[in-house]
Amino acid sequence: NGTAPVTAPQHSVEGFVKEFLRELHFGQGVTLARASDNDQYLALARTVREYLMARWLETLRRQFDAQAKSVAYLSAEYLLGRQLDNALIATDLTEIVEEGLASLGIDLATLREQEVEPGLGNGGLGRLAACFVDSLATMSVPCIGYGIRYEYGIFRQTFVDGWQVEQPDTWLSLGAPWEFPHPEHSVPVHFGGHTETYDDGGVERTRWVPAWDVLGVPYNYMVPGYQNGRVNTLRLWSARATKAFDLQIFNSGEYVDAVRAQTFAENISKVLYPEDSTPQGKELRLQQQYFFVACSIRDFVENVLPEDFDLHDLPERIIFQLNDTHPVIAVPELMRILVDEKKWDWDEAWAVTQKCFAYTCHTLLPEALEVWPVELLGRLLPRHLEIIYRINDDFLAEVAQRFPGDELRLRRMSIIAEHPERSVRMAYLATVAGAKVNGVAELHSQLLRDKVLPDFSEYWPDKFTNVTNGVTPRRFVRLANPALSELITDAVGPGWVTDLERLREMEPLADDAEFRERFRAVKAHNKDRLNALLQRRDGITLPADAMLDVMVKRLHEYKRQTLKVLHIVSQYERIVSGELDPTSIPRRVFAFGAKAAPGYKMAKQIIGLINHVGAVVNTDPRVQGALTVVFPPNYNVTLAETLIPAADLSEQISLAGKEASGTGNMKFALNGALTIGTDDGANVEIRQLVGDDHFFLFGLLEPQVEQVVAAGYEPSRYYEENRTLRRAIDLIASGAFANGDRKVFEPIVSNLLHEDRFLVLADFQSYVEAQERVDAAYLDTEGWTRSAILNVARSGFFSSDRSMWDYIDRIWHAQPVVAR
Ligand code: 26V
């Protein structure tokens, strides 16, 4: 049809150098001699994306021609990590680029470091979304990731005297070479106002008369498949003021106010909310949710589907996967479009809508389940509230028919809660509307059925399913751990990168002494690499020849960073009191990485405690270097990529039944760390796969947790009865880590002794004993290495490719689009 073919630059050193210099000169407007590192990085990024462009356009064309079913992943968060390295491995350009840059006197490593990662997520849920879109691209499955282009992602964490201080994340400030803005495809989004009924040729209909609107500007990002010629799209929305918005106010002569009003509109995509457990019920957050979901549905219906598409066939062409409840407002939005705009019957619209959505739940904490006050929702989205009421009325009528007279059941199952204030339970709405509901690990899915949504799973037993999470082996092994990747490829060939079960073929090599030697050399190399990074980044030096024991994840009481602190303090106390000979145990580095939600006081206290314990322990000569605590600030995807491959021991110590899955646990196992962990989330499946002998299990099991709580848990009893525990807590209470000031950590101490919601004290003894088993196992170097190799070989199940196949089988029924 007359379009010129888009061709990539030549896949050779000369081809690359030519294109790179062209980008430097014509894109950045500088000569090589005067180019800053940032100029060079931007030119490099633009050069690499040129290699992806033809594939991107071709992928879009093929998917359109195939009329295939697409996955629309709706997620308020994508924790992407740096883009450059991932694009390089996807295109197999790493060596060419390295050589080409070297010929110009440029070090690729220096340019890599220029990139500020897009941290558009809080933690597990956002990183999972990034792994999923990577897998779908690699599997050639049509997918659009929809989300929000926050101008400020997760805050940058700094420490001042050991206490967390947040700084804005200005990830866009030095240029954004990976994004493609398309203002011409902007979508209007409406808010507020009221609804009214009108006569539509004898039919009474409802329409929404909104009060204000904003524009959603799409920014496209490439999601390259791994060396398969495919590039999918991630479409993130940015808020702008509409023309109407401007005119109204500008015409009134209030120029300055009008400019300020623009800022108001743009606030919607300004910043990622850094809370990831306690909903704040903030109006702006609901605006964000509706904003991106309204843009995404409109975009899919009007721009992705062919012009003459019959929306009755929508379920054949799309599945909207709801990443937690954050995008659930999409359900009444689609109903509104079908009923109010397309003028369908309610039942007809509901039948289609119910087939278009599926819901993934990511939590078990009751306080993390989103609810929106009816007052707020009705003010911002009056028509959507009406639609939700109607959905609820119809649903409860159905329930009443099946369970006549069961008033209590109706009240329990209602999408509308009456107390403490009238509000919409978003998880219930998602469950009622979704074709499927899934948890993120076997145990979690079971608890979801039995504890969180028991009435619903009784009502619709087949609606509930499990898909255990996974992580992308491209980023978390191939890219993060080149030395291990080479070793694996030597052992089993290169196919493992897209077929991770192939790691199994390494199992016999666990018994090969020479292979174990090479495996240890990889770990040692990765520790050197980490040491160099921490030196550069934070001025931290790691002691040589120490076990690296790592706990990295958001700071949450249920994850129990305090349990690990108590263990460290206890070891320290036993050394200084002469009970423990520091030369009798392996030297250990305890590494932490964790951000606390800015308003979460207790979490910030715990961060302060870790840093203050470190300051004392690290400098006490009596310890003789046996214990070292390090806590580099601002843990993010980039740091994870260097930290995880260096780890010996992975700490997954949440209270059983509280961590939905965990995904860090999988990354560590795949990189040859052994896990010390509770029987929680995906730890359960990791242990089943790697085997009890290669996993350090401790702590109460989930049913036991319930019993202990039901029997009236008294943490102080554990304190009184366990001397080691008592001494550790007393040392903290004494002010030993706060220059003698007993008040500083008093809130933590008294919380542990009198409340301890997450049973830290109940699990302490079991944890200490498991840590003793760790010490003993580590002293057996060959045995430890053997276990580490088996952890890698048996963790292929945790590829997000496998998760995607499970979603496809159990929920989406989509298919790869292969070349014709
Ligand atoms: C929850 C909320 C609650 C309302 C306020 C805002 C907000 C923002 C984010 C979240 C997400 C928290 C849920 C979450 O990240 N869950 C984690 O999901 C991982 C991926 O499934 C899983 O591995 C972790 O166990 C789970 O904690």
Detailed description of the structure:
There is one protein chain. With 820 residues, the protein is an alpha/beta fold. The protein folds into 3 domains: 1-66 and 83-116, no CATH class; 71-79 and 121-368 and 433-468, Glycogen Phosphorylase B (Rossmann fold); 474-798, 3-Layer(aba) Sandwich (Rossmann fold), CATH 3.40.50.2000. It has 33 helices and 25 strands. The strands form 6 sheets. Strands 1, 4, 7, 8, 11, 12, 13, 14, 18 and 19 form a 10-stranded mixed beta sheet that branches. A 6-stranded parallel beta sheet has the order 22-21-20-23-24-25, with helices on both faces. Helix 1 crosses helix 2 (37-66). The site of ligand 26V has 23 residues, from helix 6.
What topology emerges from the helices and strands here?
Elements: H1 13-28, H2 37-66, E1 70-74, E2 78-79, H3 84-91, H4 94-103, H5 108-112, E3 119-120, H6 124-138, E4 143-148, E5 156-160, E6 163-167, E7 179-181, E8 187-191, E9 194-200, E10 203-209, E11 212-224, E12 231-241, H7 243-251, H8 255-266, H9 283-304, H10 314-317, E13 318-323, H11 330-341, H12 346-356, E14 357-360, E15 371-373, H13 374-380, H14 382-402, H15 407-413, E16 416-417, E17 423-425, H16 426-433, E18 436-439, H17 442-452, H18 454-459, E19 464-466, H19 473-479, H20 482-492, H21 513-538, E20 547-552, H22 561-576, E21 588-593, H23 601-617, E22 627-630, H24 637-643, E23 649-652, H25 664-670, E24 674-677, H26 683-690, E25 695-697, H27 702-710, H28 715-721, H29 723-733, H30 746-754, H31 760-779, H32 781-793, H33 800-812
Parallel strand pairs: 1-4, 1-13, 4-12, 13-14, 14-18, 18-19, 20-21, 20-23, 21-22, 23-24, 24-25
Antiparallel strand pairs: 2-3, 5-6, 7-11, 8-11, 9-10, 11-12, 15-17, 16-17
Helix pairs in contact: 1-2, 1-4, 2-3, 3-19, 6-33, 7-8, 11-12, 11-14, 13-14, 21-32, 22-23, 22-29, 22-31, 28-29
The structure holds ligand 26V.
